Amino acid sequence: MSTSLKIISILVGVLVGLLVMAQFRTSTPLGSSYPLDQVRAQKELIKSYIDDETQLKSRIVSLREKIDQTLKDNKLISQTTNLEKLNELKKQIDLSEIKGKGFNINLDDSPYIDRDSIKPDEGGIVYAADIRDIINLLRANNVEGIAVNDQRIIATSPITSVGNSVLINNSHLSPPFNISVIGDYESFLVRISDPGVLTDLQKRVNENGIKFSIKQSPHIILPIYNGQFRLKFIKRTDESTS
User: Fold this and answer.
1) 52 and 107 co-located in one domain
2) Does residue 98 or residue 51 have the better pLDDT?
């Protein structure tokens, strides 16, 4: 065999060997991944559905909480409004304690007499009529509230004399009488300085020694009216009117 032929045979053998080695090193091709992709897509779809459902449930809970809170707020507003109306009505009929600036009027018998041993017409004692006159003068001056010895005065408060004692709101009061007033002090002071008002009381203050004084106060507290209400003109709101 010639040298050229040997060389060709060696080259062919080398090439065949390289091809065989390349074939063994090549990975076996995998089958189709279509079923796996479908399962993966279904799993992702289920996960997305579960996530959306969880989010919606959370939103529903949040909305329910907002609805409950809104209902509570509306109820509270309604209750507050009704309570404010009730308090205003109670204030109008003196069923609530009130505080404010005002003054005190102190009225007392003459120190020279004994109320329990004098005649009812003695000029040195304070009568129910004196207290009524002062209260009427106060009302004419548009004061906000009045109390006598912690008895709240309303439009129908009875102020009468029983012997030598004074009866207010069915309570027997003894001197000294402290008339607490919430109102304009300066305005009433001008009014009381008029010699044409409370003439009988002023005369007995000067001649019989009745004590009468007025003192301004920045802190007046008037108690709740604790007397009886007259029900003569009260009727139910569902009654028909003629």
Assistant:
1) no
2) 98
**CATH number assigned to the domain comprising residue 180:** 3.30.70.1880
Residue 10 covered by a domain: no
Within this chain, do residues 112 and 200 fall inside the same structural domain, yes or no?
yes
Contacts of 226 (CB under 8 A, 6+ apart): 151, 152, 169
Total-model pTM: 0.60
| C-alpha separations of 7 from 4, 11, 79, 157 in Å | 5, 6, 113, 144
Note whether residue 218 is domain-resident: yes
Residue 16 inside a domain? The answer is no
| Residue 118, token pair as written in the block | 């004098």
Q: How far apart are CA 229 and CA 157, in angstroms?
A: 9
Using pLDDT thresholds of 50, 70 and 90, give the confidence band for residue 152.
Answer: very high
Helices (H), 185-233: 185-192, 199-208
Range of the domain at 140: 98-222
> Which residue has tokens 């009027």?
105
Q: Which has the closest alpha carbon to 153: 161, 141, 144, 145? A: 145
- pLDDT at position 42 is 66
